[in-house]
Write a structure and sequence with these properties.
272 residues, alpha/beta, UDP-N-acetylmuramoyl-L-alanine:D-glutamate ligase, 11 helices, globular, binds adenosine-5'-diphosphate, binds 4-methyl-5-hydroxyethylthiazole phosphate, binds magnesium ion, EC 2.7.1.50, metal-binding, kinase, nucleotide-binding, ATP binding
């Protein structure tokens, strides 16, 4: 049986071989960095948020990223339209609920997108996933912007129920990442604290998950292996960094130079 280490290496090779187009409807903060990270790993990014383009891009793309980081009301129908267009064509939809839990608008919109945009994978930090999970409660989930305030342990039971109820694969990131589809669960131990000291690493994780999901039809293994490869890249980038600035530059170089051999040796994906 293929181990997740082997699968991670195979997915990296497949991204480079197929160079999947990744359609991103994403936020203004990370448009540049996630496009560069997708290029560095070997995929082909396009940032496009016009509803007129959703169907044509769904024909061409290998996966779609929906990211609500700089959300305004006008973008929501386009996200739902693009999600449905992608799913109709069998293309995976990755949703990053940036800042869910922090404001009522963001939380309600994130829940609406989860319900209506044919989402296959959600990648968020613990607070964001908690805001999506806590649908039965009247109490507002809480949050403090785009960074997590909840612990992984506090939100995991709700996340498991959410995955079970919706059939969506959940990738909850933090110092340790947890990926679950309601049946299977793994922990990804790769990563480095500097990843929390630059903006856009969560959004980049979501974009790389989309690239892996474009070449791996199993959403669960795609998400787990993409997070492991990204976390490993973070470790390697931090080794030669003086701080957040050089870390960010190194991160792009390491994604570009990452080899299947380094992946097989370095990824740490554990059965939960
Ligand atoms: N303290 C940490 N140690 C190691 N890796 C981390 C740490 N914090 C975050 N990461 C990694 O950084 C990436 C972004 O995760 P996270 O910070 O949870 O997202 P967000 O930016 O959306 O809050 C993930 O790949 C995660 O594994
Ligand atoms: C700082 C900020 N504000 C709105 S979106 C955004 C980027 C968040 O990116 P990430 O969740 O990857 O750190
Ligand atoms: Mg985020």
């Amino acid at each position: 049986m293929n181990t997740l280490k082997d699968q991670a290496a195979e997915n990296l090779i497949a991204v480079r071989r197929n160079v999947p187009l990744i359609h991103n409807i994403t936020n203004f903060v990370v448009m540049n960095v996630t496009a560069n990270a997708l290029l560095a790993i070997g995929a082909s990014p396009m940032m496009a948020h016009a509803p007129e383009e959703a169907a044509a891009l769904a024909d061409l793309a290998g996966a779609l990223v929906l990211n609500i980081g700089t959300l305004t009301r006008e973008w929501v129908p386009t996200m739902i339209l693009a999600g449905q267009a992608a799913a109709t064509r069998g293309k995976p939809v990755v949703f990053d609920p940036v800042g869910a839990g922090t404001t009522r608008f963001r939380t309600d919109t994130a829940r609406k997108i989860l319900k209506e945009a044919a989402v296959k994978i959600v990648r968020g930090n613990a607070s964001e996933v908690h805001a999506l999970s806590d649908v039965e409660s009247d109490s507002f989930p809480g949050g403090k912007g785009v960074d997590a305030v909840h612990s992984m342990e506090a939100v995991l039971p709700g996340a498991m129920r959410l995955a079970d109820r919706t059939g969506v694969t959940l990738a909850v990131t933090g110092p340790i990442d947890v990926v679950t589809d309601g049946f299977r669960q793994v922990r990804v131990a790769n990563g480095h604290p500097l990843m929390q000291r630059v903006t856009g690493t969560g959004c980049t994780a979501s974009a790389l998950i989309a690239a892996f999901a474009a070449v791996d039809s199993d959403a669960f293994t795609a998400a787990a292996t993409a997070l492991a490869v990204f976390g490993l890249a973070g470790e390697m980038a931090a080794a030669g960094a003086n701080g957040p600035g050089s870390f960010m530059v190194n991160l792009m170089d390491v994604l570009y130079a990452m080899t299947p051999e380094a992946v097989r040796i370095g990824v740490r994906i554990e059965e939960a």
